Amino acid sequence: MPRTARFVIDNAYYHVITRGNQRQAVFTEEEDFLKYLELLSKYKKKYKFSLFGYCLMPNHVHLMIDPNGCANLAKVMQAINQSYARYFNYKYRKSGHLWQGRFKSMIINKDQYFLDCINYIECNPVRANIAKCPLDYRWSSYKSRSVGTSGSLLDLPKL
């Protein structure tokens, strides 16, 4: 039975979550986090989506994106997830699914909830007791967004 189509609308931002299969770790070494960020940058250029926030947790990923066209959301996530799964399975000599089913995506209004959602994404490591404050966690957009670092993957929102 085919899957039902994902509900996507133009001119919307999305909070996207993708989890490791059976909640397994998908990032075990620094190189893994760096590879995912490299792929994020590569496909950001290819598909021209906007990225407003991210957090790479050991077993899942949060992204806040504007796909800049409703057809691109699935293509973006498919490209990133497939490329990273190939990298991970090759590196760790594994096979099969890395990600747990389809990615989840929630439509985010371009208002106060947008800012609350970015805060939620970037504070994930604190809630998971991985970091004492968001600034301490290296694999989120918090430092780039709040301090401003050169070469950032982040875009400025059009609220």
What descriptors fit this protein?
159 residues; Alpha-Beta Plaits; four-stranded antiparallel beta sheet; 4 strands
Describe the structure.
The chain is α+β, with helices and mostly antiparallel strands and 159 residues long. It has a single domain, classed as Transposase IS200-like (Alpha-Beta Plaits), CATH 3.30.70.1290. A four-stranded antiparallel beta sheet has the order 2-3-1-4, covered by helices on one side. The protein is globular, with a radius of gyration of 15 Å. It starts with 12 loop residues before the first strand and ends in a 13-residue tail after the last helix. The model has no long low-confidence stretch (mean pLDDT 88).
Strand and helix map with partners:
Blueprint: E1 13-19, H1 30-47, E2 50-56, E3 60-66, H2 72-91, E4 104-108, H3 112-122, H4 124-127, H5 142-146
Antiparallel strand pairs: 1-3, 1-4, 2-3
Question: Which percent range fits the helix content?
Answer: 25-40%
Number of helical stretches of at least 4 residues: 5
Poorly predicted spans: none
Order of the strands making up the biggest sheet:
2-3-1-4
Please tell me the CATH architecture by its name. Answer: 2-Layer Sandwich
Rg value: 15 Å
Q: What is the N-to-C succession of helices and strands?
A: EHEEHEHHH
CATH class category name: Alpha Beta
Distance between the termini: 39 Å
% residues in beta strands? 15-25%
Compute the number of strand runs. Answer: 4
- Class by alpha and beta content: alpha+beta
- Main sheet, how many strands, which sense, barrel? 4 strands, antiparallel
Number of domains: 1
Question: In the CATH scheme, what's the topology name?
Answer: Alpha-Beta Plaits
Quote the average pLDDT: 88
